Please model this.
Amino acid sequence: RAFEVLERPLTVAERGEVFRVFHQVGSRMGVRGLPGTYDEWEPVRAEHLREHLVRSRYTTDLYRQYRKHLGPLRYFLLREAQVLVVPPKVRGLLGMRSISLLAPVLGLYKLARRIGLDRVLKALILPTAYKREINALDRVPRIGQGLVQ
Model:
């Protein structure tokens, strides 16, 4: 979902490729009963979202920890980014709006990326302790460009 917010909708083939990668990870971890295809997975995921999600004291504590460790600005950005990517049921459970305040900023970010200023923006909002790892992410192949071998 994050890719689709930042880039474009995935094609059917790309969705299948992403599914295969995560299926392979789950299989190697020994997870049993995984759906075999993306088409089989979709109704399983919909059922999970409908039947198994709840807000609990753990949810509250998790967000308290996010706020504590991220600080006010990064916590705000996290919450606004989540509005963009989480399913409607999750937004409801977390008491989020349906429209993110970051939505207008995305257009500016996409423009900054096209003209090479995205690293400056990342440097401003992301922790400096992880600068090397964050910059390394920019060199990872994009979806549809050799993700699965």
